[in-house]
Write a sequence for this structure.
């Protein structure tokens, strides 16, 4: 089920447009996902009927206010969540649990502190049983892809936060997943590092034509990187709107600074603001109720 | 109660734990009765359990319990007074701290109780030996944690005190000491545990005192169910002591830390 | 060492120590030795209970050049090593199980937590019954003693692993054995090493106490024998050597653990 909203902003004349996504069967289909935590009266409905699909080579962002269940979705799709209702399918085949088609990049610090950069990046290859020489060779390619040439023998503790996230991304990429799932990978970084890494991700997407699903709370980031932005409601999370981003690639700073870009951001913020305020109001009323003497 | 309901889950784990213990007892009982396990090496668990009331009645356990408790009380008082005092001293005189802290830390890891033959020579086979060993063994954690607690007071709290022009004594009483209390209690808890372990242990080793000596005597008399029973009893008493300590710590410390 | 089992780690950081600190240390040691010598020569305490320093020094030298000492030291060292291997392996396996399964932890960990801080030496009569009066009962005593702090350290070590690292392993579909070897064990290295350090200290105590109670060889036997024959200088010498060895071993292991930490676990 694909919901497209009409493109409301006019194109700047003369700019080349990217071909529409979803040419052919989607590589990833997510259908009617429902996730409830706990049981009975104290249960929490985190996600309530989310469906969408992603085409090969497409970059899709999932954006929503805190508490909307987007990380839950991330875990469900990646196969790390417990039970849920609904269906996740790759190339039409239902998958359950972790699947080699997916590569996951997590929000928290996830590099192994006891391994060097190259050993971190080679980790999935080691799991797959590939020999040392070959996996180091393959890993080196991805270390270079994220721009960490020369740091192969360093330990994560010697690197900055942004560099460590690059190692995590390289590690996931080295497993050559068909679908890259990223859960707010830049949330813990400062603004400038985030922007630089965003550029890096764009580069990688360009080069590899990597199908990517990015979870984020950052609107600018979502518009800058994606072909399509899915906006989620506050808990229980559903898809409020899908916004096709009809901007040319590569997304240069010119593109980012354009009016069209601004319109997309404003439109998405409009939707989000509603959800975010609702989230804050519900949080406040819940806190008030909790504090009241029974 | 459904098989996957939360109520079931909450009780299933402890039930398994308890069930394993009971099951083990039953299994051992069965194996001994079947002759698989030699009953002169492992007495019947039922006999062991029966031995406990017998021991309590015949071996004046309450009196022995009181003896061990007396030793524990004496050692505790020493520990609290001397330990905290030395800790305060070490905090007060920074040079002293820097000179001695590593040595005290080394002592914390040293097998102090192995000096018991030496204490035997100096203090004889008496309660004093037991109290002294337990005291010395439990001292390092108390000292170290007291120093750590006092030294670890956040400097901003002291700044607040200075901004109100508190005297040194006031600063100590109203800010440093309360701030250090959680750490001091942790040190006391560890120190008291060491103390009790050493009291019972040394009682056993030197064959003097209360509960520890009881075990030794019963073992030398080859009263198997009695020995096993007494050991079980002492373990339960230790556990009780430990539980009481935990509760006391929770009760005495407000939930600030 | 046992302190660490209860959440206290007294590894004092190495700092450059200025002259005043060394001067004070020297002064304290000098004063203590002086007091000792005075008490020894005053005859105030029973004869020989406090031997003079030269007597003690000679006894230390005598002990260190006595082949019987080394023979017994070897026996004790062997017992402690065996105790650590047995207690350590059991402790690690059970610790891993408890640390990785919340259910098992809820079922059994309370027993370990509450039975841990109890005097294990009182089990010695049972150990003798089961394993005889030879080294077996000493090894059993040592193993029983060091099992508990190791289980507690390992279980705690597993639980302090950042959950995200486990998720990384699972997202790459590592097998359970791969998870253990490539994720759990490396992530737990520090707590495990510290747990083993602690276990060694406790195994030393447990084994030696058992030797003093009932044995005909080993360091503990030598100590209690010198007590029985009222050979005080020898007892002091043995105790001094024992303490130096125990504290030294702990310091050495501490240095090793610290070197491992030079790649700081930023988790």
């Amino acid at each position: 089920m694909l919901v497209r909203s009409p493109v409301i902003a006019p194109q700047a004349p003369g700019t080349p447009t990217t071909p529409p996504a979803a040419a052919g069967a989607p590589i990833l289909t997510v259908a009617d996902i429902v996730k409830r935590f706990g049981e009975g009266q104290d249960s929490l409905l985190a996600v309530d009927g989310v469906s969408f699909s992603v085409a090969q080579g497409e970059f899709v962002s999932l954006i929503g206010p805190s508490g909307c269940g987007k990380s839950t979705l991330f875990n469900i799709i990646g196969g790390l969540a417990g039970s849920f209702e609904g269906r996740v399918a790759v190339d039409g085949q239902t998958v359950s649990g972790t699947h080699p088609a997916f590569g996951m990049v997590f929000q928290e610090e996830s590099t192994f502190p006891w391994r060097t950069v190259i050993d971190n990046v080679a980790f999935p290859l080691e799991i797959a049983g590939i020999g040392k020489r070959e996996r180091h060779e393959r890993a080196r390619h991805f270390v270079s892809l994220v721009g960490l040439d020369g740091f192969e023998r360093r330990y994560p503790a010697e690197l900055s936060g942004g560099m460590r996230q690059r190692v995590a991304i390289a590690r996931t990429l080295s497993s050559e997943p068909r679908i890259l799932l990223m859960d707010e990978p830049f949330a813990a970084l400062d603004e400038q590092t985030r922007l630089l890494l965003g550029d890096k991700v764009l580069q990688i997407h360009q080069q590899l034509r990597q199908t990517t699903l990015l979870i984020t709370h950052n609107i600018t980031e979502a518009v800058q990187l994606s072909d399509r932005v899915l906006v989620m409601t506050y808990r229980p999370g559903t898809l409020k709107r899908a916004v096709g981003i009809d901007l040319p690639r590569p997304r240069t700073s010119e593109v980012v600074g354009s009016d069209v870009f601004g319109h997309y951001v404003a439109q998405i913020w409009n939707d989000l603001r509603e959800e975010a305020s609702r989230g804050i109001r519900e949080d406040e009323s819940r806190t008030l109720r909790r504090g009241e003497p029974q | 109660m459904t098989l996957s309901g939360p109520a079931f889950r909450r009780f299933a784990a402890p039930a398994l734990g308890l069930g394993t213990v009971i099951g083990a007892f039953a299994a051992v009982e069965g194996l001994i009765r079947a002759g698989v396990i030699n009953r002169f090496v492992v007495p019947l668990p039922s006999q062991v359990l029966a031995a406990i009331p017998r021991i309590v009645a015949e071996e004046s356990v309450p009196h022995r319990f009181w003896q061990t408790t007396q030793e524990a009380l004496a050692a505790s008082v020493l520990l609290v007074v001397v330990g905290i005092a030395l800790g305060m001293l070490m905090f007060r005189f920074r040079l002293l701290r820097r000179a001695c802290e590593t040595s005290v830390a080394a002592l914390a890891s040293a097998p102090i109780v192995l000096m018991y033959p030496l204490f035997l020579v100096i203090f004889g086979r008496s309660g004093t030996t037991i109290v002294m060993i337990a005291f010395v063994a439990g001292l390092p954690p108390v000292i170290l944690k007291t120093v750590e607690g006092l030294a670890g007071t956040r400097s901003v709290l002291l700044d607040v005190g200075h901004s109100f022009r508190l005297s040194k004594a006031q600063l100590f009483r109203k800010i440093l000491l309360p701030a250090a209390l959680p750490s001091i209690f942790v040190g006391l808890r560890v120190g008291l545990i060491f103390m009790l372990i050493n009291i019972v242990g040394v009682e056993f080793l030197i064959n003097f005192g209360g509960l520890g000596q009881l075990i030794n005597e019963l073992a030398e008399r080859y009263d198997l169910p009695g020995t096993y029973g007494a050991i079980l009893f002492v373990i339960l008493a230790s556990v009780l002591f430990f539980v009481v300590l935990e509760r006391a710590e929770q009760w005495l410390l407000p939930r600030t830390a | 060492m046992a302190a660490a089992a209860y959440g206290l780690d007294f590894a004092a950081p190495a700092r450059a120590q200025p002259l005043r600190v060394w001067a004070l240390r020297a002064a304290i040691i000098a004063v203590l030795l002086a007091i000792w010598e005075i008490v020894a020569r005053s005859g105030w305490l029973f004869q020989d209970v406090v031997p003079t320093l030269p007597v003690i020094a000679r006894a230390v030298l005598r002990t260190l050049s006595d082949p019987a000492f080394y023979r017994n030291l070897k026996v004790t060292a062997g017992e402690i090593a065996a105790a650590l291997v047995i207690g350590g392996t059991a402790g690690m396996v059970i610790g891993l199980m408890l640390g990785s399964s919340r259910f098992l932890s809820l079922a059994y960990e309370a027993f370990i937590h509450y039975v841990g801080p109890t005097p294990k030496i009182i089990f010695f009569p049972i150990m003798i019954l089961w394993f005889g009066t030879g080294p077996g009962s000493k090894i059993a005593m040592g193993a029983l003693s060091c099992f508990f702090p190791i289980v507690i350290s390992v279980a705690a070590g597993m639980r302090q692993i950042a959950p995200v690292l486990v998720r990384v392993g699972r997202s790459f579909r590592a097998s359970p054995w791969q998870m253990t070897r490539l994720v759990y064990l490396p992530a737990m290295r520090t707590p495990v090493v510290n747990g083993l350090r602690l276990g060694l200290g406790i195994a030393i105590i447990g084994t030696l106490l058992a030797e003093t109670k009932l044995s005909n060889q080993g360091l503990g036997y030598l100590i209690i024998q010198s007590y029985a024959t009222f050979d005080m200088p020898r007892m002091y010498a043995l105790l001094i050597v024992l303490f130096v060895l125990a504290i030294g071993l702990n310091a050495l292991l501490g240095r090793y653990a610290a070197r491992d930490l030079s790649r700081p676990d930023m988790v």
The beta strands of chain A are 28-37, 44-54, 59-63, 85-90, 93-95, 102-105, 179-183, 211-216, 228-232, 239-244. Confidence is low (pLDDT under 50) at residues 1-22 of chain A.
